[in-house]
Structure formats: structure tokens, C-alpha cells
Automatic annotation (TrEMBL), chain A:
Upper lineage: Bacteria, Bacillati, Actinomycetota, Actinomycetes, Streptosporangiales
Organism: Nonomuraea deserti
Assigned keywords, A-Z: Membrane, Transmembrane, Transmembrane helix, Transport
Identification of the protein by name: ABC transporter permease
GO cellular component, one term: plasma membrane
Localization of this protein: Cell membrane; Membrane
Record-linked PANTHER family: OLIGOPEPTIDE TRANSPORT SYSTEM PERMEASE PROTEIN
UniProt record similarity statement: Belongs to the binding-protein-dependent transport system permease family.
TrEMBL record, chain B:
InterPro entries attached to this UniProt entry: BP-dependent_transpt_permease (IPR050366), MetI-like (IPR000515), MetI-like_sf (IPR035906)
Keyword terms, alphabetized: Cell membrane, Membrane, Transmembrane, Transmembrane helix, Transport
Membrane topology: Multi-pass membrane protein
Alphabetized Gene3D superfamilies for the sequence: MetI-like
Biological source species: Nonomuraea deserti
Pfam families: BPD_transp_1 (PF00528)
Name of protein: ABC transporter permease
Subcellular location: Cell membrane
Main location: membrane
Residue ranges crossing the lipid bilayer per the database entry: 7-24, 72-95, 102-125, 131-150, 176-203, 237-262
Family membership: Belongs to the binding-protein-dependent transport system permease family.
Coiled coil regions, renumbered to chain: none
TrEMBL record, chain C:
UniProt domain ABC transporter: residue ranges: 20-272
Source organism of this protein record: Nonomuraea deserti
Keyword Transport listed: yes
Pfam families: ABC_tran (PF00005), oligo_HPY (PF08352)
Family per record: Belongs to the ABC transporter superfamily.
A single BP term in Gene Ontology: peptide transport
SUPFAM superfamilies tied to this protein: P-loop containing nucleoside triphosphate hydrolases (SSF52540)
Gene Ontology cellular component annotations, sorted alphabetically: plasma membrane
Protein name according to UniProt: ABC transporter ATP-binding protein
Keywords: ATP-binding, Cell membrane, Membrane, Nucleotide-binding, Transport
Length: 333, 286, 341
């Protein structure tokens, strides 16, 4: 089947993308003015009040540059270190390894961003079909302009407003954190409930900010698709309008929305990271914020690296769904 | 209609950005940086129309000053990003072949990368730098979407018979690109610029919110960040963080309106017929 | 007014009963353009009526009006489309029929074949699913398996191997797709199939094959056809009767033979002489000078008069009515009402 060939090509592209991300991560600190390695080492020695063990020194130089070694050799060393999943140590939480910090935050972010992205995609796509099916109708003329406004509002500002209204004024939701700190962490009912309670408001604001983009995209695609002959023929067949809308119009209009997934995901992730900051949510967005404030370069790079891998993986998943939905992909690929 | 309303809003903010500082100083007699010890964190009143911050600064004066900061970054970053998009997209689309292979890969790479976090990290290394650098970084990483669209369009223009014929006749590529291909893409490039403008305003706000910005500069992002830092939410100082966010949203909506209008002109399929289906009365037919 | 005269044929045998009577149908676009004006004709069971005209003659508008598939700017402003069911009950007016009743009538009584099957078949659904959709919408008791089985039979009926039922539209050749679209239109055994240029998208050889298939299936299944095309020579091959449209009106209607051997309207004559016949020996070809009128500002009087080689005083003032003339009907001042020339 040539559907596999399409996926194989995409897989090849993503492999190249991962390699590029790794290389970018390698180059960024080395291209920056000054010597980040030296700055990190000095900072670490100041914070810990002792000189660093040679192993730590070496690890830092591998990650952030060693002016005395040539770039090629550095690159190989860097790849070797990444292969061992060694992302260095945090400056502020010395000597906690960066990977520990990131692994702690990643599940929270995956939970929050993953679930809200799926929900926003479904809600936006669903409403977009309805708006586009009766373009110019009452629903469309109210919802579409409103959505245009909503989708141009910064995520973190929506988060601030929500926190002010529902957390501060109404007191329905807690003001900060991802779970009730007084409860024992684990898979027990009170803790899970507290996670849901704490996560509800951040999740709602992300869905609110993100669904508009999907809605507008889907609306425009539906408006175009509704004029296709196969939709006309489906109506002529005497199918119920609901069935025509879902199986004929929406099914086809959705395909470009999947290719647009990649474009939008980066923005959603960026916005969601900022939302985490507003709610002091224990994910990697908040971690990134703390590390930026404290100039904790190793953590900063570690977060970016893992974030990139995750986003690339999500894109690959979207591509796979696309290949499943469109039989013509086999010929086109 | 949409285009006109959107352009008017953008023009208004551009005017505020350019002349607002002079206006608030001479006409309103306000200084965005002055601290009024008498009025700390006051809600909107006759004296301070939009209230004051925790530091006793006038919010209205700050919003006006913030317009020039945000719009400066927006315009500069959008100019850089659009220029790069044209350079990469048109070159790839026009020349095709190996050049296209490399440039297209680069474009797709930046499309799937989480660009906003990338900007955060790079800017993180350059903390404390001015708005110029921030605009530069945003522009440098934010061109991929535009390049993809332009590549496709340039490809179709370059494939038209008259361009092909002129190429065969030995017309120079540079001339063809500048006099045949680019003029066909001006509408698209303009709409792209607006996209980039709102993207950059949002990115700058995000960066400022993360604490990465010129500590001396005032932009809508730095205002929201200062409000967040001073726990404005927990003190209920809504007048501090609502106006700057609203301004960003207005610019975004305006840009979206213009692009909607442009889309409808470029793609007639999107034009919606407003006439409702008239159910003809029996009396009318009989 | 004019059609009223031929509407009294109640006791004729079943084969001659009408399936469709169109009476004074007018369609406008946003109240500005009158794309169909006062169109009347009767279609008998099992009859193939060809409708020919240049682009802009209103023939496509007629199709969407007949099938009630028209979209917003187009509005039916006058007239009736009376459909006579198999059961011999009172006819229903398709123009005013409510959505639910119309949906029940679709495909079981009235189906359509669109110009390009490539565009008319859903690209992401298997062929069988598109047949099963229609079959199961009108027969709730039919199982999925039965529906797919029936789909395979229908495909076999037009010479497509049954295993194609699991294929996607893009996997078929152009001719196969078009035949599949015809098989799809016959899925629920309709009385009437409207065909919109069903053979424009295929080559000449395939065109002939499809036409003979349509004729064979009509003989087997007994459905009536409204066959719309710009190609008059094609209609001479398949149609029993032919209607010629110009500027939204029927200007001549009669049997295919009568129209071919003795066209009355100057426009019909011009149309006939601008196509090579498929079978007859070649005649010198000539086109019709000028171009179709702008329907926003149709010429006064007979709309054809600016291009007419035989126009005379009065053509630009008096609107000719459709009147009987030598076995068929024509709307031209050369043939005044009552005077049988």
C-alpha cells in the first residue's frame, strides 16, 4: 500500500527535524555573545560555595560549549551526552539534574496541553462546520466575528481575567498550583479530584483561547466544500441534512484542518506555557518561566529540547490520522 | 467594509504609537513614568481616567506609551519576517529544483518547530536587550508560514506560459522575479504582513510577560507583566491589566478583519450570499 | 396559458401517462436575472426529453429548479412542477413540497446524474458506501450487507466488476466513474432521472457506450429522462423529444425526428447546422453569428432577434408565444398563432 510510503516519507522528515532540533540546541548557546559555559560554571561555584567536580565541569562544557575544543569534536561529545539523556544540572537547584526537573513537569503539561488541544480542536472543528454549513445565517453571523476577536486575545491575558473573575472575585477555583498541597500525592480519589479542580480553570482558558483558530479555519473550508457537487448529490439522494453535513461536507472539509494542525500547534503550546505561569501550574511552562527569570540556562535548554520532541511527535500523530482519513493521499504522496 | 473597519483600527493605533507620547504629555499633561504617591492603585476616576498602578503611574498614559513600544516591535518584526518569507518563499517557488528542496525543507522545519518557545529560549540568553533585538528575534523565527504560502503562489506564477516563454527568450531571472512574479503577489504579501504584525505583537507581549524585555521600555506586554508581578489579580486591580490586553485583542481583530476581506476578494467561494431563501407563496405562483 | 390545451389525457394507457408536468416555471437570480421564463412541458413515463441550448440559455437553472437543488440567489418565482407518482394518486407540486416529503421523493422517484462524476462522488468514501447511503436512507429495513450487495449488482448492471464496490472514486477511470454515477442514480428505481451533460467529461467512444447503456436501461427499467446538453447532435441520437432553450425560454419543442428534418425556429436551424451529425453524411457546417444575450438586460421582443437572419419588423417588439406548427411547437413570429404553416 502506498499509504505506508506517505508515512515513511513523513517519518523521514521528522527524523531530520529531530536531528535539526538537536543541532539547534547545540548551536544556540555557542552562537550567543559571551561564554555561557563559563557563566554557568562561575554561577554554580558561587551558589554552591565550592569548586565543581571535574565530571560536572565536563558535562557543562559538552552542553554549552568549550572554547578550547573545535566545533566538530564538541558536536560528537554533545550527541554522546544526549544519548545518555544527560541534560546537565540545574543551577538554582544544584545538584538536581535537569532531566529530573523536566520529567517532573512534563506529565502536568502533557495532561493540560494535550487534553485542551484535543478538546479545542473538536469544539472548534464542530462549531466551524455548523457556522460554515449555514454561512451567513444567524449562528455564523454571531459566532464568527466573536471568534475572530477571541482568537486574537493573548492566552495569558485571558488566563489573568479568568483568574481574577472566577478565582479572586467568585472564589470558585484555587488561585495557584496544580493540586491540593495538603493531600498525599498518588492515585487516590481526593488527590485526583483536586487535580481536576485545580486544572479546570487553566484548561478552560486554554480551550477558550485556542478553539477560535480551528473554528475559523473549519468554517472557511466548509463554506468552500458545501458548494462541491458531491454535497449537492448527497442532498439529491434524499439523505438527512445532518448526514450530508457530517459525512459529506465535514468529512472533506476537515482534511486541510489536519495539515494546519502543525502550524497551529506551536502557537497553542507557546500560549499554554504562558497560561501555566499565570496559574503557577507545575508544568514545564512554569519551569521555563522560573529558569528564564533565574537564568538557569541548563533547565531552559532542557525544557525546549523536550518540548520540541513532544511537538514533533504530536505532528507525526496528526499526519497519521490524515493519512487514514484521506484515501487519495496514496496517489498524491 | 471589513477591510475598511480593520484598516481604520490599525491606522488609529499607528497614529497613537507615533503621536501618542506627544499628545499625552502636552494635551493630557501625563507622564507614563511619573509616580503619583497620592494615588497608588486607584480605580478609574476623573483625575486618572483609567486609574493608576501599584506604583502610582497613570494607566492611560502607560497604555498610550505602550502602543508605541508594541507597535514598534510589531512593525519591525513583521517587516523582517515578511522580507524573509518573500526571500525564501519566492526563491524556492520560482527556481524549484534543488534550491527549492533545501528551502522547502527549512520552511517545513520551522513550521513544525514550536517557534514561540524557541524565541523564548533565544531571547532568554539575551536578557535585558532592547526592543530592537526582540523584534529582530521574532522576525528571524517567524517567517515560515508566509514562506509556505508564497512558495506555492510563486510556483504557479512561474509556471504560467508567459513567464516560461520569457525565460526561454533569455529574460533575466532577476527582472522576471521583480517585474512579473512579485507584482502578482503584492496582495498576498500585504495580508501576510498583517498576520506577522499581530503575531509579533502577541509574541512581544508573551516575551515581556516572561520578563524578557527592556526594563526601561513600556509596552502592553510589560504592563501586563508588571501587573502580574505585583499580584494585581489578587488585589483586584483589574484596570491595570485589562486595557493593555484589550488593545492587543483589538489590533488582532483588526488584522483578522482585513485578512478576511482580502480572502473574500481573492477567493470568491468564501463570499456569502446574504439573501435568504424565499419561500414562494402559493398566491404569488398562482 | 398555452400548455393548458394539452393537459387533458386521463384515460390513455400507462405508457403514455405523464410523469412530470411543468407549467409556467420561472426562476430568477436575486430578482435581477430571469434565467428561466414561463417554461412548460410534459414528460411521459419512459420518455427521454432532450433539452438543448448554449451556455446561459437557462438549461442548468432548469435542472436545479426541477430537482429543487437550487441555491439562495436562485428563486423559483412562478409556476408548478407536477410530479405524478406510480400509484396514480393526485400529483404533487415539487415547487411547494415540504422538505420532509421532498426528501422521501428524492432518489426513489427523482434522481440526478451530474456533469462530472469525478466531482459528484465523495472522494473519501468507498463507492459501496455512497450507494448504501442512498439505499438505506429510503429503505430502513435494508441491512448494511444487503445494501453493499445491491451496490455491487448495480455496478455490474453498467458493466463495472462487482469488486470495485470497495474502491474509491479516484481509482476508477473517467468512463467507469460516469457509469457508476448513472448506476447510483438508478439505485432506488426512480421514475425520472435528470441528466446534466452526463457525457461531456468522457471521450467520444465512451460517450457512445454510455448513451447506448442509458437507452438499454431505460427500456429495461422504464424510467423517464430529462437529458440536458449543449450538444444537439447527441440528443438526436437518444431523445424521443427535444426542447430548445434560448435566453431562459423554450423556443421550440417537438420529436427528435421532426426537429432534425424540419426545424422551424431560426435558432434551431442554426444550432442544427453548427454540429456534425453522428451518422448522417456530412453537411456544410455553419455557426450562429453573435453571442447569447445578457440576461440582466434581455433584448425586447424575441430575445433571439439581434442574431436572427430572418428577423423582420416586429421581432424587436412582440414576444412570440409557443404555438403548434407542423406537429411540434415553436415560438417565433414567422409562425403566428392559429396559422398552421
Amino acid at each position: 500500500m502506498t499509504g505506508r510510503r506517505f508515512l515513511a516519507r513523513r517519518l523521514g522528515f521528522y527524523a531530520a527535524a529531530v536531528w535539526s532540533a538537536v543541532t539547534l540546541n547545540f548551536l544556540i548557546p555557542r552562537l550567543m555573545p559571551g561564554d555561557p559555559s563559563l557563566a554557568i560554571i562561575e554561577e554554580l561555584e558561587r551558589v554552591s560555595g565550592q569548586s565543581l567536580p571535574p565530571r560536572t565541569l565536563e558535562s557543562i562544557q559538552r552542553l554549552f560549549g568549550d572554547p578550547s575544543a573545535n566545533l566538530g569534536a564538541q558536536y560528537l561529545d554533545y550527541l554522546g551526552q544526549l544519548a545518555r539523556l544527560d541534560l546537565g544540572v540545574s543551577i538554582r537547584n544544584f545538584p538536581t539534574p535537569v532531566s529530573d526537573l523536566v520529567w517532573q513537569g512534563l506529565p502536568w503539561t502533557l495532561l493540560l496541553v494535550g487534553s485542551t488541544t484535543v478538546v479545542a480542536f473538536l469544539v472548534g472543528t464542530g462549531l466551524g462546520v455548523i457556522a460554515g454549513w449555514r454561512a451567513g445565517g444567524r449562528f455564523d453571523s454571531i459566532v464568527s466575528p466573536l471568534t475572530t476577536f477571541v482568537s486574537s486575545v493573548p492566552y495569558f491575558w485571558v488566563a489573568l481575567l479568568a483568574l481574577w473573575a472566577f478565582g479572586f472575585l467568585l472564589g470558585w477555583f484555587p488561585l495557584a498550583g496544580g493540586y491540593d498541597p495538603d493531600l498525599p500525592v498518588g492515585l487516590n480519589a481526593p488527590f485526583v479530584l483536586s487535580v481536576l479542580h485545580y486544572g479546570a480553570l487553566p484548561a478552560a482558558t486554554i480551550v477558550f483561547s485556542a478553539f477560535g483558530g480551528w473554528l475559523l479555519g473549519m468554517r472557511n473550508m466548509t463554506v468552500t466544500t458545501v458548494r462541491e457537487d458531491y454535497v449537492l448529490l448527497a442532498l439529491a439522494k434524499g439523505l438527512s441534512p445532518r448526514r450530508v453535513m457530517l459525512r459529506y461536507a465535514a468529512r472533506n472539509a476537515m482534511l486541510p484542518n489536519f495539515t494546519g494542525f502543525a502550524l497551529a500547534l506551536g502557537g497553542v503550546v507557546g500560549g499554554a506555557l504562558l497560561t501555566e505561569i499565570v496559574f503557577s501550574y507545575p508544568g514545564i511552562g512554569y519551569l521555563l518561566f522560573i529558569s528564564l527569570q533565574q537564568r538557569d540556562y541548563p533547565v531552559m535548554q532542557g525544557v525546549f529540547f523536550l518540548l520540541t520532541l513532544t511537538v514533533l511527535l504530536a505532528n507525526l500523530a496528526a499526519d497519521s490520522v490524515y493519512a487514514l482519513l484521506d484515501p487519495r493521499i496514496r496517489e498524491r504522496a | 467594509m471589513k477591510v475598511r473597519a480593520g484598516s481604520a483600527i490599525i491606522a488609529f493605533f499607528a497614529l497613537v504609537a507615533i503621536f501618542g507620547g506627544w499628545f499625552s504629555e502636552t494635551v493630557l499633561g501625563l507622564d507614563p513614568r511619573a509616580n503619583d504617591i497620592q494615588a497608588i492603585a486607584q480605580p478609574p476616576s476623573g483625575e486618572h481616567l483609567l486609574g493608576t498602578t501599584q506604583f502610582g503611574q497613570d494607566v492611560l498614559a502607560q497604555v498610550i506609551a505602550g502602543a508605541s513600544g508594541s507597535m514598534f516591535v510589531g512593525f519591525l518584526a513583521a517587516a523582517i519576517g515578511t522580507a524573509l518569507a518573500v526571500l525564501v518563499g519566492v526563491t524556492a517557488g520560482y527556481f524549484g529544483g534543488g534550491v527549492d528542496g533545501v528551502l522547502n525543507f527549512l520552511t517545513n522545519l520551522f513550521l513544525v518547530m514550536p517557534v514561540l518557545p524557541l524565541i523564548f529560549v533565544v531571547a532568554g540568553y539575551l536578557q535585558g536587550t532592547g526592543l530592537w533585538t526582540i523584534a529582530l528575534i521574532i522576525g528571524l523565527f517567524g517567517w515560515a508560514g508566509g514562506a509556505r504560502t508564497l512558495r506555492a503562489q510563486a510556483m504557479s506564477v512561474a509556471g504560467r506560459d508567459f513567464v516560461r516563454a520569457m525565460r526561454l527568450l533569455g529574460e533575466s531571472n532577476r527582472r522576471l522575479v521583480f517585474f512579473e512574479v512579485l507584482p502578482h503577489l503584492t496582495g498576498l504579501i500585504a495580508s501576510m504582513f498583517l498576520h506577522a504584525l499581530i503575531g509579533a505583537v502577541l509574541a512581544e507581549a508573551g516575551l515581556a510577560f516572561l520578563g524578557i524585555s527592556d526594563s526601561a521600555a513600556i509596552s502592553w506586554g510589560t504592563m501586563i507583566q508588571a501587573a502580574q508581578q505585583q499580584s494585581a489579580v489578587l488585589r483586584g486591580l483589574w484596570w491595570w491589566f485589562v486595557p493593555p490586553g484589550l488593545c492587543i485583542a483589538l489590533i488582532g481583530t483588526a488584522a483578522a478583519l482585513v485578512n478576511f476581506g482580502v480572502d473574500e476578494v481573492a477567493n470568491p467561494k468564501l463570499r456569502v450570499v446574504r439573501t435568504r431563501r424565499r419561500r414562494i407563496a402559493r398566491s404569488e405562483a398562482a | 396559458m398555452t400548455s393548458q390545451t394539452q393537459e387533458h389525457a386521463p384515460a390513455t394507457p400507462a405508457a403514455h401517462r405523464a410523469v412530470l408536468r411543468v407549467d409556467g416555471l420561472s426562476v430568477e437570480y436575486a430578482g435581477e436575472v430571469r434565467a428561466c421564463v414561463d417554461v412548460s412541458f410534459t414528460l411521459r413515463r419512459g420518455e427521454i426529453l432532450g433539452v438543448a441550448g448554449e451556455s446561459g440559455s437557462g438549461k442548468s437553472t432548469l435542472i436545479t429548479a426541477l430537482t429543487r437543488l437550487q441555491r439562495p440567489p436562485a428563486v423559483t418565482t412562478a409556476g408548478r412542477i407536477l410530479y405524478h407518482g406510480r400509484d396514480g394518486g393526485p400529483p404533487v407540486d415539487l415547487v411547494t413540497l415540504d422538505d420532509k416529503a421532498l426528501r422521501d421523493l428524492r432518489w426513489t422517484s427523482l434522481s440526478i446524474v451530474l456533469q462530472s462524476a469525478m466531482d459528484a462522488l465523495n472522494p473519501v468514501l468507498r463507492l459501496g458506501a455512497q450507494f448504501a447511503d442512498a439505499l438505506r436512507a429510503h429503505d430502513r429495513r435494508m441491512s448494511k450487507k444487503e445494501a453493499w450487495q445491491r451496490a455491487a449488482e448495480l455496478l455490474a448492471m453498467v458493466g463495472i466488476s462487482a469488486d470495485r464496490v470497495r474502491g474509491y472514486p479516484h481509482q476508477l477511470s473517467g468512463g467507469m466513474r460516469q457509469r457508476a454515477a448513472i448506476a447510483l442514480a438508478l439505485a432506488c428505481r426512480p421514475d425520472l432521472v435528470v441528466m446534466d451533460e452526463p457525457t461531456t467529461a468522457v471521450d467520444v467512444v465512451m460517450q457512445r457506450q454510455i448513451l447506448s447503456q442509458v437507452l438499454r436501461l431505460r427500456d429495461e427499467l422504464g424510467f423517464a429522462v430529462v437529458f440536458v446538453t449543449h450538444d444537439l447532435s447527441l440528443l438526436l441520437e437518444v431523445a424521443d423529444r427535444i426542447a430548445i432553450m434560448y435566453a431562459g425560454r423554450i423556443v421550440e419543442i417537438g420529436t427528435a425526428r421532426a426537429l432534425y428534418t424540419g426545424p422551424k425556429h431560426p435558432y434551431t436551424q442554426g444550432l442544427r447546422d453548427s454540429f456534425p451529425p453522428l451518422h448522417a453524411p456530412l453537411r456544410p457546417l455553419s455557426g450562429i453569428p453573435g453571442s447569447p444575450p445578457d440576461l440582466r438586460r434581455p433584448p425586447p421582443g424575441c430575445a433571439f432577434h439581434p442574431r436572427c437572419p430572418e428577423r423582420f419588423d416586429g421581432c424587436d417588439r412582440i414576444l412570440p408565444e409557443l404555438v403548434p406548427a407542423a406537429g411540434h411547437e415553436v415560438a417565433c413570429l414567422l409562425y403566428p398563432a392559429g396559422g398552421d404553416r
